[in-house]
Amino acid sequence: MMRSQRLHRSREVVSRRRGATLTELMVVVSLSGIILGIAGVLMQQMLRADRALARCAETAAHLSRLESLFRRDAWDATRAEIVANPEGTRLDLEQSDGSRVSYQSAGHILRRYVVLDGNASVGRTVYVRRIEK
Question: Is 95 helix (H, G, I), strand (E, B) or coil?
């Protein structure tokens, strides 16, 4: 009887034990580290995609504005000339009021110049960026 009482008491002690073992804590900490690492990588990719989307939206807005200016300039033009040079391609539009509007493409840059009385002023510059994957 003594032996069964001891076994019964030792089971009570084990069943009353509260808390976690060191192994259980190490497993939880390891899994938490892995989850946080994956979350960090995903957050970085999400921020990179958000920046790329913002650049694309900005470029689209600039191109839209440039397109409306180009339509107006082309409609009002009395003469047009395309000039190809090593820096890029240029389109010169002579307007009915005597001014000249030039559109120049060089690499990923589009520029609109307005020339009045021989003085050129840059009206709009658009940097067309490649979408980074």
Answer: strand
Q: Give domain status of residue 93, yes or no.
A: yes
Distance, CA of 101 to CA of 120 (rounded, Å): 9
Whole-model pTM: value is 0.59
Name the nearest CA neighbour of 103 among 117, 123, 119, 118: 123
Average pLDDT over every residue of 31-42 = 96
Tell me if 125 sits within 8 A of 109, measured CB to CB: yes
Longest dimension (CA), the chain: 118
pLDDT digits 0-9 by tens, 75-94: 999 999 998 888 788 899 99
Q: Which domain holds residue 28?
A: 20-127
**Tens-place pLDDT, residues 4-21:** 666 556 555 555 667 889
Question: In angstroms, rounded to a whole number, what is the distance separating the alpha carbons of residues 126 and 117?
Answer: 25
- Distance between CA atoms of residues 64 and 97, nearest Å: 25
> Which pLDDT does position 12 carry in this prediction?
58
In 3D space, the residue among 114, 108, 113 whose CA is nearest the CA of residue 59 turns out to be 108
Say if 80 falls within a structural domain. yes
